[in-house]
Amino acid sequence: MFSLERKEERNPLLEGPELISPEELEKELKEKLEKGEIGFSFPLETRCYWLGYKEGKPFFVIEYFDSLPEELEEREKEKFTKEIRKFGEAEKVVYVLKYGEAPKLEERVQESLSEKYRIAPARNFEREKIRPLPQEIEISQLTEFLKDKRVLFYTGAGISMAGGVPSFNQLQEKLGIEMSQKIDGFLKKAITNPEELMKIWEDFIKATFENPPTPAHCSLAKLAQKLNAQIFTENIDYLQERAGVKAIHISGPWLRENIKPEWLKEIDGVITIGLSYDDRGFLGWYKENNPNGKIIAIDLEQPSYLGNEDFMLAGDCQEILPELEEKFA
Length: 329
Known about the structure:
Layout: H1 22-35, E1 39-43, E2 47-54, E3 57-65, H2 74-77, E4 81-87, E5 90-99, E6 135-136, H3 139-148, E7 151-155, H4 168-175, H5 185-192, H6 194-210, H7 215-227, E8 231-233, H8 239-242, E9 248-249, H9 252-258, H10 261-264, E10 269-273, H11 282-289, E11 294-299, E12 311-314, H12 317-328
Parallel strand pairs: 6-12, 7-8, 7-10, 8-9, 10-11, 11-12
Antiparallel strand pairs: 1-2, 2-3, 3-5, 4-5
């Protein structure tokens, strides 16, 4: 639907979301697990953690470059295997600890937290000395805005937490990942109790794939169809698909390859829902290409990306979206 090779110049952002049946969704999710398309990596110059799935089974890989932490005991260091790898023309020593059947290096499909997964610099006003004051609005005002404006919905972890899906930060905390520490909880558990880590990881994937949609997801599905508006998301869960429509799971590379900047000029507003940060840099890119476009956040607290010219609808999206849907029924 978003192929740039199409001859027509229609803006697909002005078309409603694609529908998906429960049978189609189950098939798609099974293929993702089998192909190993689900995973996270946490890279630093000195080490990298990687969690994923291969052929439907979970695994993790820990890699230390050049040397292991001196704080580790000798018996703990013995759990790592030593490899020599080429990085360009140079060779580097890599110490590896694996659990489960991890793919070979060249087979890895992973999303890192690096800048390449952003389309533009993240929009963040928290570093400013004076915090922006977006205009506070009510549901009735947002209803009027939606009646004659072209919008795009953009969801974050806040819409799914009520459905039992932890946020990315919560997942990191449960796994004990703290990359600023030389030896964190994840490394300790990987050495002493890897099964516990895999249980946390499996529970997270099960929640993202199997949990039912929240009231907000169900109402958003109907609103998006009524308004002919696409749903972008930074979430890896499939609660929106459980509500019968496809959300577009975005990354920087996907945006660059599939979205024409001029299409954003036709979008009057981006409605964010439960989105705390502009991690993918999409909102910054939207403003760059459409300075007059508005961002309207539905959230419990003011997100970091709202400027003075934007709007804030404070409250629980699980209550606000069903009320919005009712007004458009």
